[in-house]
Design a protein that fits this description.
Length: about 170
């Protein structure tokens, strides 16, 4: 199978496995990111970095793919590995939030919706990029991935406004 020979496929799998290990580690209290670095907790800095990367890099890669079609494969690899790495950071943050004690448990609301959107985004992107589920046409896969991406951008805006107390 050609897919098993692709280094970016194995790197993507490795990042997903690392994400799962870090989730288990946080749930089992192997580490904590509840300490402050400046005005925010360490886990919040991870989500700021991850979300900012996704928000900027996804648009940049989309524009660059159209401007430089000869660089398509390289740009897609950057998109996949970069966004999966950002997903890892966001996953650490989300797990840190949901494993907080009952006395300081956060209101999940928009954060939960945003994380679900990111899970759908990663899943649809993985299926689209590596053509895991061939029953759907590439056009349908692409449409689903782009639709979830748009939902993700809308939810980021709502989540930030909610976090700032504007909504």
């Amino acid at each position: 199978m050609v897919l098993l020979k692709k280094i970016d496929f194995w790197l993507a799998i490795l990042i997903i496995i690392l994400s799962a290990v870090l989730v288990v580690g946080r749930v089992l209290n192997w580490y904590s990111l509840g300490f402050f670095l400046g005005p925010l907790r360490a886990s919040h800095w991870l989500v700021v970095i991850g979300s900012t990367y996704v928000a900027i890099a996804t648009i940049a890669v989309s524009i660059l793919k159209k401007r430089f079609p000869s660089k398509y494969e390289s740009l897609i690899k950057i998109h996949v590995i970069g966004n999966l790495s950002a997903f890892l950071l966001v996953t650490i943050h989300f797990t840190s939030q949901v494993t907080r004690s009952a006395t300081s448990y956060p209101r999940l609301g928009t954060g939960l919706a945003l994380y679900i959107a990111m899970l759908l985004l990663v899943s649809s992107g993985f299926l689209y990029r590596f053509r895991i589920f061939n029953r759907l046409s590439l056009g349908t896969n692409r449409f689903m991935h782009i639709s979830v991406a748009l939902s993700f951008y809308i939810l980021i805006g709502i989540h930030v406004l909610h976090g700032l107390g504007i909504l």
